[in-house]
Amino acid sequence: AGLIRYTAMFFTLLGTWFILQMYFDQSWKAISLRGWIGKQLPRHKCGNRKGCPQNHFAFKIISGAANVVGPSLCFNDVVLMSSVKNNVGRGLNIALVNGTNGQLLKVDTFDMYSGDINKLDTFLQEIKHGTIMLTASYDDPATKMNDKVRAHFTELGSSHVSKLGFRDNWVFLGAKGLKNKSPFEEYIKNNKTTNKYNGWPELLEMEGCVPRKTD
């Protein structure tokens, strides 16, 4: 009886050791694999999920969140506007870059609630052919918006500016001289019935690759 008991205990301990050995071995392999993958994953420009092909610029545009968190505009791995850089403001935040070499040309903010709409009108009229424009809303992007200014944005490739309203959220990348509508635009309506933040739309985040101007 004693021999049987010791034999049973021996096989029980042996089985337990075998199970634990397999568990820790698999866990170690999983940890090692995660660590190996983590070290090998490349960082893409602007922190985007995917890289861009040759002759393309990476970009990421993040709108403001309500009237609390400011927007962020990144182009070719350079943050052009953000709260950290202290160069964003209520309304529309716009950066212009050279479509050939990606160099920053100008940044500006336009108060669309109580500012002078003529300032934005002049700014848009002066954009030169081949210039890429990044736009992000913050708080209110449209109270002062008029038909003339909306037409300028439409010429730059916007599909949604015609319906942009009070405290809507909007991110847009367009260019002077586009033959078609820009594929880079997102829009959320300010709606107290459907939006979960007391009517405020949640922030928008748009990223992608825009082709370098070559002609």
From TrEMBL:
Belongs to the FAM3 family. This is Protein FAM3D. The chain crosses the membrane at residues 6-24. It is found in: Secreted. Pfam families: ILEI (PF15711). GO terms for cellular component: extracellular region. InterPro entries: FAM3, ILEI/PANDER_dom, ILEI_FAM3C. Keywords: Disulfide bond, Lectin, Membrane, Secreted, Signal, Transmembrane, Transmembrane helix. It comes from the Eukaryota. Its main location: secreted. GO terms for molecular function: carbohydrate binding. The keyword Lyase does not apply. Residues 90-177 form the ILEI/PANDER domain. PANTHER family: UNCHARACTERIZED FAM3 (PTHR14592).
